[in-house]
Amino acid sequence: MSRSAADRLLDVLGAFDQVHPALTLTQLARRAELSLPTAHRLVATLTGWGALERDDAGLYHVGLRLWETAALAPRGLGLREAALPYLEDLYEATHENVHLAVRDGREVVYIERLSGRSAVGVHSRVGARWPLHATGVGLVLLAHSDPDFQGRYRAEKLAAFTPYTVTDPERLRRMLAEVRHGGVAVSDRQITDDALSVAAPIRGARGDVAAAVSVVVPVAGARTPTLIPAVQLAGRGISRALGWQPAASGPTASA
């Protein structure tokens, strides 16, 4: 089936990712599976509108106009602005990597990160995506997603990044139950073998889990029992900033 003009425009934008933030016109055409003349025409349209920008070396990047449009997403800039004071408090308490993330399908998307020079090295950055099962924030968001979705997720092949990444469906099911019961997720060396993540849910005004907050620390000497209340406090603070009222949100607000 032939692709519509809108499909082809989206394919051009979709050619950019974490590994390919800058592309030549030829690379764009190849990654979007377009002929060079078609890619040239579409890229010119996107560049004229501001969705793409071309640097002095002839490489194309995602443009500022697209970022301005994306900032209107309620799960983007608005959530970040509400959360930032609490993220800063969590960072001051730990001086480690602090993350704010939301779920997009089978992946977690990071929309804010605070980090100091001495913090443990991580692969996350704003806009980065990781599978839900392998990160603290992802485990929180997966645990509070629809049960049918959880079942489908566990049934598919799960990517492993270290020997500690949980890929067994039954073990993951038990982990998610523990997250819902305890109100916190601990992801131990699942992305890198030197880091541990503690994450807690962030609830919207209706009590549903809208996002997650986490702190990532070196696994050596990690004081998990101390980190858990700090992360949960940040999660509750952000939730209240979003309009969550525990007494009025019903049973969903208890986890």
Poorly predicted runs: 250-255
Shape: globular
Going across the biggest sheet, name each strand in turn: 5-4-3-8-7-6
What percent of the residues sit in helical stretches (DSSP H or I)? 40-55%
Number of helices: 9
Q: Please give the number of β-strands.
A: 8
End-to-end separation in angstroms reads 46 Å
Please give the largest β-sheet: 6 strands, antiparallel
Rg measurement, Å: 20 Å
Report the structural category.
alpha+beta
Mean pLDDT: 87
Strand content: 15-25%
Spell the H/E element sequence: HHHEEHHEEEHHHEEEH
Please provide a written account of the structure.
The protein has 255 residues and is α+β, with helices and mostly antiparallel strands. It is built from 9 helices and 8 strands. β3 (97-104) and β4 form a beta hairpin. α6 packs across α8. The longest helix has 21 residues, at 74-94. The relative contact order is 0.11.
